[in-house]
Fold this sequence. Notes:
The complex is a heterodimer.
Chain A: H1 2-8, E1 15-18, H2 20-28, H3 44-48, E2 51-52, E3 55-56, E4 59-64, E5 67-70, H4 72-77, H5 87-99, E6 106-109, H6 116-123, E7 130-131, E8 136-137, H7 142-156, H8 171-177, E9 180-185, H9 188-196, E10 206-208, E11 219-220, E12 222-228, H10 235-245, H11 248-258, E13 261-262, H12 280-286, E14 289-290, H13 298-313, H14 319-333, H15 335-343
Parallel strand pairs in A: 6-9, 11-14
Antiparallel strand pairs in A: 1-12, 2-3, 4-12, 4-13, 5-9, 5-10, 7-8
Helix pairs in contact in A: 13-14
Chain B: H1 2-31, H2 38-42, H3 53-59, H4 62-95, H5 98-113, H6 116-126, H7 133-140, H8 152-180, H9 184-192, H10 197-225, H11 229-234, H12 246-256, H13 260-290
Helix pairs in contact in B: 3-13, 4-5, 4-8, 4-10, 5-8, 8-10, 10-13, 12-13
Amino acid sequence: MRLVSAVAAGDPPDIAQVGNTDLATLVTLHAVIAQPPVAPDFFPGALNVTRFHGKYYGTPWYVDTRLLFYRPDILRRAGFARPARTWTDWLKQMQAVRRVLKRGQYPLLAPINEYAFLEVLALQQQTPVLRDDARYGNFDNPEFRAALTFYKNLFTQGLAPPIADHQLINLWWQMARGDFVFYVSGPWNIGEFRRLLPPKDEGLWMTAPMPGPHGPGASLIGGSDFVIFRTSTRKRLATAFIRYMLENRQQIYLYKLTGDLPARRGPWALPPLAGDVKLRAFRRQLEHVSSFEAIPEWDEIMDGMRRAAEQVIIGGQSVRAATRNLDRKVNNWLAARRQIMAKDKTQAPIRSGMSAP
Amino acid sequence: MKSISGPLFVLPALALIALFVLIPFLGVLGLSMTNFDIYVLASSANLHFIGGANYVHLFHDQAAWQALETTLTVVLAGVPATLALSLICALMIESIAPRWRGLFRTAFFLPVVCSTVAVAISWRYLLNTHYGLINHLLVAVDLPALNWLGSPTLAVIAITVVVVWKGFGYGMIILAAARREIPEELYDIARIEGAGVRQQLLSITVPILAPTLGLLALLDVAGYWQLFAEPYVLTQGGPMGSTMSLLLLMYDRGFRWWRWGVASALAMILTVIMWLFVWLQRHTKTSWREG
Lengths: 357, 291
């Protein structure tokens, strides 16, 4: 990340737009200042990820979550009116859907080089994948093993092809052809589907909230936050700018330009967001999002989790062996964090608001 | 005055080398013996000298061994293949009618001047399992379609093919030029003495081109050890880390996971390996010439 280089060089900007893990990194570097929320109606999940040691270090600008994109017509053909709400029912749906598909078509697309889907499955469980203030890995627990087993079965039962996203030619066109019936993805794909498919194909795809292990499931919260750097000499101007950018008009304008979803509930009650049937699932899912600990090592840990899943799916390793291996690696990666925390807890970011409202 | 003019002339060059090669090299060497990571950037009080701990860590790191194996495979398979292809194409171009030379020379040299990223993306389409041209051709001749970038073994082969295809044109141009320098009289004499095409190749062309081939081998070895862009674009190091090269691993550790100490140790190891290879190459070349 260039911002880390800028901080290292002692020349960061006044304001920046950063993702959640990057925010944790900048908080670790003591590079950004705490700022109280500028509005009362942020999605709680979005605000929560900016909170470290009880203070908010970022202002959510736009939000992102993952849910189902699907083919309603094919689902109907397989005998279902709407997507399932639980893992078990979803699995049954996919097995039924497979029977109405041609050879080379799959009920689900889940690129094995992307970790978001597996992260969502893990997030839907009660037990976190790191323990003791994110000092140790905790992937080898029954719940994560259940999530990984569910994920593995999608591939071993032939419900999803074990391919990477760069092995796709044109996802949207392939989806319209019926190559895939379900796809777990983010809000940007609403815009992409509309841009890349002709208007007559608008009815070929729909969105729905994530199924969970025992009912409608949580999803992850991503997106982008504004931060103000400690070294900035124009902090008041910076705050005013952030306030301006979060007004309804600017949030809606951003949505129109890029398809990025507003982080405040306010703009959602106004057109064009309010009338868009494909955004409804996102609106509902955004009330039902959470996240794991944000720590600088998070991306590396998720990359490790993805590789562990690859070992299970392509390499034929057992789930048990893979989770044990992963914990060993994660413990290794967190060694520096443990040392720092043993010395001085405030040096390593801890998100205090995990279970707070 | 004359005695110091020589050193004075090389001084600017030496100063630049010191500034941009020697000092960074020593910096990386020093960094590789520290725990430099994101917490050190936060507070320099966290910086510790840890000696060879990063090297020991890499020695026990399975991913590092796999990256070494992958990179070594590409070097050992790619360098001879590139040299052979360069030589064959160079000799072919020099033996065909002059009016066609320009066309072939351009065609074979084109990949060298193309952007690696653009080329790799094109190959990604060619290698696609369902829609790729290569699998279409395989199926057309009744062979099974292959999951080129999805299988750990095939992905390494695919990367090697792309690297060789991208690189052989350079050697071809150099070798074609060197071939033109060989006096035709030598071949005339050989023919009069009754030497066949094979004998002419092995007794005249190859020995005379040997120094050029040696130079190209050196450049290719140095280049292929630094394999990065092709796996970065084609496979991102997957599947199962099978196409993770040493440089790609270094990039991940250093610039994605902020482990500059470990990444520097990897850089040092790569440097030592390349030195070793160059030394080995010079050594074998000399003994071959003497023998």
